[in-house]
## 1
Amino acid sequence: MARKILLVICDGLGDRPSAALGGKTPLQAASKPGIDRIAASAMHGLLYTIAPGVTPGSDTSHLSLLGYDPLGIYTGRGPFEAAGIGLKMKPGDVAFRCNFATVDSSRVVVDRRAGRIGEPDTGELASLLPEVEIDGAQVRFRESTEHRCVVVISGDGLGSSVTDTDPGVTGRPIQLASGLDEPSSRTAAILNKFTNMVIEKFSGSHVNRKRMEKGLPSANAIIARGGGVYPDIEPFDRKHGMSFGAVAAEGLILGICRVLGGEVVTPKGATATMETDLMAKGRAAVEMLGRKDFVLLHVKPTDIAGHDGNAAGKVEMIERADRMVDYIISSCSGELVFAITGDHSTPVSAKQHTCDPVPLMIHSGGLRSDGISSFDEISAGRGSLSSLRGLELMPLLMGYADRNEKYGA
Amino acid sequence: MARKILLVICDGLGDRPSAALGGKTPLQAASKPGIDRIAASAMHGLLYTIAPGVTPGSDTSHLSLLGYDPLGIYTGRGPFEAAGIGLKMKPGDVAFRCNFATVDSSRVVVDRRAGRIGEPDTGELASLLPEVEIDGAQVRFRESTEHRCVVVISGDGLGSSVTDTDPGVTGRPIQLASGLDEPSSRTAAILNKFTNMVIEKFSGSHVNRKRMEKGLPSANAIIARGGGVYPDIEPFDRKHGMSFGAVAAEGLILGICRVLGGEVVTPKGATATMETDLMAKGRAAVEMLGRKDFVLLHVKPTDIAGHDGNAAGKVEMIERADRMVDYIISSCSGELVFAITGDHSTPVSAKQHTCDPVPLMIHSGGLRSDGISSFDEISAGRGSLSSLRGLELMPLLMGYADRNEKYGA
């Protein structure tokens, strides 16, 4: 009988031996009795979420883990960020992730986050130009979390191979966007014109007058990056024949799941920061498993701790995730295929994404087990799943959940 | 920060249990404290240099290990042999590896190596016909190592699907080359005409008169095999974004590295025989690592010992390679990604290339390790790299050297 599937993805989970942890990885150093109790009767392996030697982003890796080859549909992070804040798009729309920024009179960027501006200022600024028409295309503009915002361009003949206007560093001017082909040149021209409109509109705005009075940097421009086209994508439920929901708090992951047609839930108290309430996520996942065939539970702060080089923080997040997992497993009635992995490695020693594969553990009643008593990168290297590629995960989970079809007779 | 990469390839390194070694493989039987000291903090796996079940040649496997799919560029060994002796070629040129041979008056081959002829006789003979024009194509002829020589044909409309003129055994006549398609038929006709010219020119030569006086077999013909077209190939440095050098002594490997645009060094004393000076190679590699991002160090005689069924000799070569590796590792300042593997297996029990995967070990400071204390075929089968394909090696090394680009955001 078909089983339900719970996939827990701890962002940036994979790590390397850490000097701060006596040469152990955070997963090795953490006390995680809940996960390790399952470990002993689970299958283990290492997962190259894209391919060996590829350092994945969180967007490309999540697509791959959910069974979508990013090579076919991924052109940039923009559309997923835009979907993350609830913007409706259609295939062919081009979206950019942007920052509210501070520029001087020569358009040189002096603060890439406009003094870490946030609500309500960002919402008020965005409302000055929510939607305009440029060169026959519709341009939508929305605030996102903190200093972030999104630009979506809809119209005929648009391309997404557009260079960033974000110079990436302070002290350099806003870059003129350019397109690598004819349709992308059209998009670039629209983005450049919209950037001009923003600068003109924001300079004398009520918000910025108030910010200047308080001595805060003026949010007098936007800088764009990560342009991508909204993909023409088969919804998850049709592709895999399973209803799909996700418990997540980070905009990017929410966006990816929305683009795939999933129901997304961010329970009260759950955030994309170290302060997130993981037990709230656990309860939401248990509730969702009552309604959905496949539930993705995303935990962000393991990645944050990795980027910060914070070994103790990563251990703590793993220990909190362990209590969440223990709660879910003990709360679920019926057979469940449970898998836990990462989307990529963010070693605390590297403070950035690396190509190291992530540990993967799959558990369900009655399956084989490896006799490995700890879920970690080193133990996983001895597991029976050996090494897998990201696109192989979904067929494997569906197979073990009795949700695949026999091939042949 | 980007690290340098040293890839040591011991030719034909992989083996099977050997009765002469009490059921151990040569790698298991050898005393190799230098390599095994690194082994304990390295990642291990088995590498199918082409694909499972494929018995690789040294040419196809080296191309694969260096990141070039041989299926797209490899048509025969000829061009790489020709490049190995320094012949300049351009894409589209067709090259053959040949032997100086002895034939009777009916062109029946009586000695495929003309009494293992060598310099200076081969050079003198080749100088009789260094370059001629046949059917509007340019034909170049050069002596190579020992009894070997090379024919390169340049011109329009040439193909490389040409059958060998070498009958492969004695007692059979030189074969008439034939082409499998129209352009290859043109090449075959030119090769047949050139073979006739050689036979005519060599029969009354000064060299052969002297050889007959000494009772040596006359080198009165050439027999050709391994025809291939010089590939239109992206240079290594452009393809991988790394400068490339190789320390090698065997013509084929030198040729492959030259075709890829690498700098090649054969230090004094380094040869493709059991008498090679491996410490000279080690010193050359250390020097080259000061100048190049990626260095290939090739060790030939492990393969020779395999072909000869010489278990003790293979063990000895591994022990000498161990001292070379130990010297290199202890001499290199700074972070280095170090990998050691083979290009294929040449088990002493088989005396030929086999499809067995080769052991692979990758080491660099701060990476994960498998806790495996010996570098050998059996231990590698338990390693975290599990089994990889040849084309996956270069991305993996570049990833661990921080020389890849993140895919996604």
## 2
Amino acid sequence: MTDFAATRARFLLPGNLIYLDGNSLGPLPRGAAERLDGTVCHEWGELLIRAWNRAGWMELPGRVAARIAGLIGAEPDHVTVGDTLSVKVFQALSAALSLRPERRVVLSDTGNFPSDLYVAQGLIDALGQGHELRLAPPERIETHINEDIAVLLLTQVDYRTGRLHDMAALTARAHAAGALVIWDLAHSAGALPVDLAGAGADFAAGCTYKYLNGGPGAPAFVYVAPRHMRHARPVLQGWLGHAEPFAFEPEYRPAPGIDRLRVGTPPVLQLAALDAALDVWEGVDMQALRTRSIELSELFIALVEARCPMLTLASPRDPARRGAQVGFAFEEGHAAMQALIDRGVIGDFRAPDLMRFAFTPLYLDEDDIRKAAEIIADVMINRLWDAPEYRVRETVT
Amino acid sequence: MTDFAATRARFLLPGNLIYLDGNSLGPLPRGAAERLDGTVCHEWGELLIRAWNRAGWMELPGRVAARIAGLIGAEPDHVTVGDTLSVKVFQALSAALSLRPERRVVLSDTGNFPSDLYVAQGLIDALGQGHELRLAPPERIETHINEDIAVLLLTQVDYRTGRLHDMAALTARAHAAGALVIWDLAHSAGALPVDLAGAGADFAAGCTYKYLNGGPGAPAFVYVAPRHMRHARPVLQGWLGHAEPFAFEPEYRPAPGIDRLRVGTPPVLQLAALDAALDVWEGVDMQALRTRSIELSELFIALVEARCPMLTLASPRDPARRGAQVGFAFEEGHAAMQALIDRGVIGDFRAPDLMRFAFTPLYLDEDDIRKAAEIIADVMINRLWDAPEYRVRETVT
């Protein structure tokens, strides 16, 4: 039994706002500021270079990675952290392609986050071996899996609509066709139960600043299945992926395990904040989190649809086919979202017309949802978005 | 006239130690902790996602990059920050190779930091076009520059010996042979005057946690010369390198300028610390810094050599041919460095036998050097390193 009132108390949430944007940037966990201050003032300031050993900076990436592994159903020594999600997707894709040298197609879907597609195209162009990036509609991706496919590269939860792919079924289908699968968990890790090992995933990558609340620019993670580990060459061969980084050998020898996916010096300050942020998961059952997240999103949809006929649900109506976020389409969505933010309901906007809201039980309850729906109804019914100050466009990540 | 007593006051240095390891991790600048606390508690904690616009997080990478550009003689809009140095070398090298499609040799030297060599080899293997990574001794690199060479990839200051390459001369020599040059400035930026534009460098990359004091794991930077900008494809194509990241287009279109070398979401916490750290350069003349650094290192060498015949200078004796660091070879160097650290003289050790010391006038003066030399003499003459506690090896980065 997860106590969500207790998890809420683990965050420092500003008063007078309802934060439905945990899918972009998770809020500040209570211990993060203090931890970071200690890392800066005591470890960096006083231990200086000695902190790599004496404050455990060398072990920090492994420690953080093992904690993330536990949240995504990964074998503990098969996840590492560092770099950004795009870099980790690049590494996973290059390793996966080298494991299917006779095939030439990377299959993804049109709902994938564009950066994954850019990364794939950049790698394909660099390889110059005639690979093709093939895109299919998400709802028909299964029918495009065939024996041409080298790698299926999918984001499990669509960054706009929240549409959830069936990881186990698609992985099995890909394997039956002899393809490998890379799962981008950007909107999955910390949002819902993920079972990489159980699904037989080959590779996965994700970010930690969304549902894992690691802070702005927190590092990414990458997973390699045990059966691929010793064959997975990372392409980005950096010194901390070497079997013996401090031997300073002129020839690269990959570390025997997941450390080979490491590249350069780890971002210690970001990792310290992330490590503190992972404390909030203590005692949280992911299945209970999922149940509660669905309750909150179902309540939200019902309340919004009852009052706001001008908003069109852009997410799957079946909660089992959604991640932890819900999108509503509205032509003036950008202005409407700014009006909501000004009134303390923080969601975000994705072009061309999508208003996104995330349901994160660690720090949200039914009372928040009811209040948010009330404010949304006020903004929409009274056209409060139709004011001059909302005609300027800001970008939000 | 640079006031080095004033710059010293801009750092929070622990008492009772002399920090000669700024070539590994610069010390804590006075404003960094406060800045980071504000970024965490106010910006992340209270503004949440809105901080990307309202706290200037979107502009932070560009702002920091422009400040670094001013310290390395780069055109202001031709540097960007992010990722790690290895990733930035990867991008620079892949862009450079694509500009010399008819050539097949990457030339580097045996004194280069191994990660640069690993990165080059990984890229070459991935390209599969028969490129060769050729290594020559640093002192004879010039004689190996010929019309086979696509790219000359050099670290200006040798990470072990401190040997300084002549950037202008080698760049001119490479250009005369039709080759491009990438300068790794890991041990140059903030250590001595660098004039990328004046030398006609093609690409450069560097890190910010050493002489720029950006904190552990601070992001890297990369430079592209104006003449190459519109041809430089980054291979690592991420969403923040797109011409319009927030249009979420399925096709990658590189940003027109240096932003195309950006990849993923920037490490905001590290960038905030780095931005604060760059304040210490206010009013610092790089030529004055260089003069003072040489005075300190010359004094150090004279004092150490006078007292410690068992230490062998491993750096060029001519200060004009050294960066800001000095290495002494000693068979028991690892134990000796630990003994020094225990007595408050912080340098570091590089296998197999090198004791490294860096001379950073921003926070070191002659008094520090005299005290350090005294302690070194005590440790060496009295064999204080020959104690059981110094037989355990720690790794330091």
## 3
Amino acid sequence: MNEIIFLQSLGNLLTKNGMDASVLSDDCAHIETPSRDIIATTDMVIDRTHFDLSHDPLDLVARKSVCVNLSDLAAAGAKPMGLLVALAIPRSWSQRQSQDLMTGIVETASLFDCAILGGDTNSTKGPLTISITALGFKHWRGTPKRGHASHGDLVFVTGELGGSFESQRHLRFTPRLRESTWLMDHINIHAMMDLSDGLASDAKKIAIASKISIILDKSATPIHRDLDFRSTHRLEHAMCDGEDFELLFTVSEDEAIRLEAAWPFQTKLTQIGRCERGNSTVFLVDESNHKAELTWTGYEH
Amino acid sequence: MNEIIFLQSLGNLLTKNGMDASVLSDDCAHIETPSRDIIATTDMVIDRTHFDLSHDPLDLVARKSVCVNLSDLAAAGAKPMGLLVALAIPRSWSQRQSQDLMTGIVETASLFDCAILGGDTNSTKGPLTISITALGFKHWRGTPKRGHASHGDLVFVTGELGGSFESQRHLRFTPRLRESTWLMDHINIHAMMDLSDGLASDAKKIAIASKISIILDKSATPIHRDLDFRSTHRLEHAMCDGEDFELLFTVSEDEAIRLEAAWPFQTKLTQIGRCERGNSTVFLVDESNHKAELTWTGYEH
């Protein structure tokens, strides 16, 4: 598609969504940062790897490309500010398809009060590839990093886990921005991340970065109803399927009491384990108090 | 390639280049912005579109992926701060190839005093796709936008134009950051942009954004020596080949005198035209003062 026509239609789309279309006239975006530091993250999604255009609708693909980035901002306790969007569009696509994709991206950004700051469109002989960089404002309390868990912390997760890819939940999920903002405002969060590769693999990342061990309670794992009708391996699916985009975080025992008393959302909140002194290992403990190292590995992109 | 191995080798690479490797342990980068606004830009390059791995060396491909973004920062008068790098790597690649690519990206960033702030690596069935977002600090004077040219301005270009793609100059060019910083420090720049699609097409963008017409002087166009041995259409090549990554900018007549007297670089500086009241048209004027609308169009990505 001709770049000028594309930019014009994108300009109309931005204006329609109450956004500033003047960003399109230059190659760079200017971000005013009065006194707040910036948080930046980038995530790329590719057809046949992160979605499948042979059965996934384009508006949901667009939604996912934005939401995976917003989920990273949520994990950093940041408030979304804007996106830079780089597209590699298959040569065979019609102008209509490109516009539908951009519409989906702009409308999703708008839904989460996030501007489009810039972009780049290219054609490719390969699969549709959407690369988004999200910028957000840092919370005044700081950024809860993976390496901030302490021994004695309790481990929490939002929502329910597993079956996201098969149920198309990975295309429809809502990034936990509201929950993250509330947590940052009210609770002293130690470590936090979003679950993209699966609890087993992502808990290990916190254990490694924080140099502690994590003991997960087998019976506490919130298993998603998308997995209800499977007879076997439900726990393994919940822990390893990945693409949950829920928040995994740790707080001290005292904060945990305040947290559970004050949690204001319908979104489920579950204490799933605790942190102990140790050698960056993740253990699973069952009802009879048998403790075994968790060796399941999560989904690798 | 396993993500953890990849991140470890990338961590070593960052440390070796004197960069902060701690950015790799979380999904988001934290950018301190004491009192300076941020400039952001994104550019994606794809095998067989922006380079060709069947004959272009990987280190130069990496260099280009960084430099096209830094050239956008130069055009905005900004000082590079850091990059977010998203990669779609062909499934057939060896670990060695991926590492060579990252080495090229990190070393180029280092060369221009630019940090790696974050990234995302994926495998693809399609061609190598490198998507980089560059963040920079705004110059205290502001940002010279495409829409800031005034009638009466003189139009300048750095360097020489044409033949960039065929000579592989598009892989080796040096983004005009030094020149841009000097210009911002010393000269009141009106409009500025970098030449990526070719002078004919890019001058039109300034004409449209500034609602003026631009009269280019046919005999003044600095034709690159890469075009020396072509017998015909040299001017058209210089104006339309694109991928020059030189600075195109406008200043008032008074500033132009100061500029030409003070220009401290070996990089060629040429006054190639002037801005007039008009209807966003670009004209070419020849030695006999014949003026005709420039209808050549530049390279479209």
